[in-house]
Amino acid sequence: MNNLKLHILGCYSATPRAFTNPTAQALEIKNHIFLIDCGEGTQVQLRRQKIKFARIKHIFISHLHGDHFFGLPGLLSTFRLLGRDTPLHVYGPKGIKEAVTLMLKVGSAWTNYPLIFHELETNTSELIFEDDKVEVFTIPLKHRVYTNGFLFKEKLGDRKLDINAVLNYNIDKCFYQNIKKGKDVTLDDGSVVANDKLTLDPQKPKSYAFCSDTSYKEDIVPIIKEVTMLYHESTFLEQHEKLALETGHSTAKQAGIIAKKAAVGGLILGHYSTRYNDLNEFKEEAKQVFDKVALAEDGKEFLF
Amino acid sequence: MNNLKLHILGCYSATPRAFTNPTAQALEIKNHIFLIDCGEGTQVQLRRQKIKFARIKHIFISHLHGDHFFGLPGLLSTFRLLGRDTPLHVYGPKGIKEAVTLMLKVGSAWTNYPLIFHELETNTSELIFEDDKVEVFTIPLKHRVYTNGFLFKEKLGDRKLDINAVLNYNIDKCFYQNIKKGKDVTLDDGSVVANDKLTLDPQKPKSYAFCSDTSYKEDIVPIIKEVTMLYHESTFLEQHEKLALETGHSTAKQAGIIAKKAAVGGLILGHYSTRYNDLNEFKEEAKQVFDKVALAEDGKEFLF
């Protein structure tokens, strides 16, 4: 059973407090550790959660507000100091490359590993990363500046060998790989055994959608439909809905509505404004419309 | 009795650990709070030490390596979010303005308060700030990139009124201000009382010199001569003197030698490489040449 593991490195909104961190998450999916957003202090949070820097090869930045990317120059510098040589891919809005590389350049601190920026500028969901097991798509969001959420999806895996059936038909091991790929088998007597008699359905692919920062935006529902887990920002409570609209953010209730419409497996809230003292109010508010709600908290891990 | 108060916000060198911070200090001198260097996470450290953001009006950046200035964009953004309107002056190497403002610009996050950069590029000590009570000079250092230390000096204050003498001569209060400025007083009978009969010497002006990062550099001795307190980096121990030279840093012993030659009132060590586990070794090593040695530690305060 493969699970996705999500580390919340920071989940507060812009104004810092003494013991909270701005947005950053690390998603373990298949063999990847994807870093999602990189607010100031992210490298320290990675250290605290004992996530190996060398395993991070892809960083996804939603937008260029400080609380989502000011930790990037420091992390890139640290990679260099640690002697990294594996390439690093950074996905983020147009402009990120110039700003971040200039921060390194003024200190003559070029990276000694390949640093590849993938600048984003479209307003439709697009595939930005793919390998044999995972796909990553953008989720265009609605904020004060150009912003994308990200959808991380496992690809449908091989079918599972039904070992009893295979032994029953006395099928040679050399066919197993092809059977898992969906092929039928022709026995020595010339008869054909259909693949569905030899295999079981693969595990349903899991998926994670990260949506921050954004106003309430129903257009994202088809993109995140039925994801295993949705993180949706909830900067405000319903009492400040007007403020949410003005600043390009959502309320906890709006996050719940999106979760319900998209019929997701679970909803994680975060990006709380520091004006609220009791985070449970966010949970209670979202629960009015959607059942499976959890609160992001710095240092928390989710397995799904 | 006026003391200077130095807050150590962070004192480790570049590679971050889970619970240490890169270089930043806040110096309280007269009515100022001067921020010196601003490594990543400085704004959080300021919060933890309950230093009021609004009181910081001058920031001095020694050089453009990440562990000394990557916290600046975040701090400037936070000032904006908090509705600051008082001007902020930033002193640092040429290039700082373009890099830092671009980080804000890509997120459409211009400051709504006046942000004035003072770019430094000379290699001789120069006066960069002055008001009626304080002067700040650069201390040209020797590092891998253009680097300045900073010398913060109180100006010599007014002479102190010797209240017994003044009453004895039955001098009218309206003369007090002039007496403190050093003037003699002519009595009603035409006789003159010399100022030194009416006043005491003012308190000796205090001073603080911040020297990080730098190789051993004797040229700085005349500039920091007899300062009340010297902070001098000690990235390495003597056993790694060669490495110190190669990387543009100093050993604890070298810091001690500079302190001794400059006959300073006290020496604070810092900017420790994370390769060492026992900081007391730094102190012991410096003490071999200079007596009054203290260790900077994150969160520590020095009064002098």
UniProtKB/TrEMBL annotation, chains A, B:
Which reaction is recorded as catalysed by this protein? Endonucleolytic cleavage of RNA, removing extra 3' nucleotides from tRNA precursor, generating 3' termini of tRNAs. A 3'-hydroxy group is left at the tRNA terminus and a 5'-phosphoryl group is left at the trailer molecule
- What keywords appear on the UniProt entry? Endonuclease, Hydrolase, Metal-binding, Nuclease, tRNA processing, Zinc
The UniProt record gives the binding positions of Zn(2+) 2 as 67-68, 213, 271
The UniProt note on the cofactor reads as follows:
Binds 2 Zn(2+) ions.
Molecular function terms from GO: 3'-tRNA processing endoribonuclease activity; zinc ion binding
Q: Could you list the residue ranges that cross the membrane?
A: none
Q: Give the EC number.
A: 3.1.26.11
Q: Tell me the HAMAP family matching this sequence.
A: RNase_Z_BN
- Protein's recorded name: Ribonuclease Z
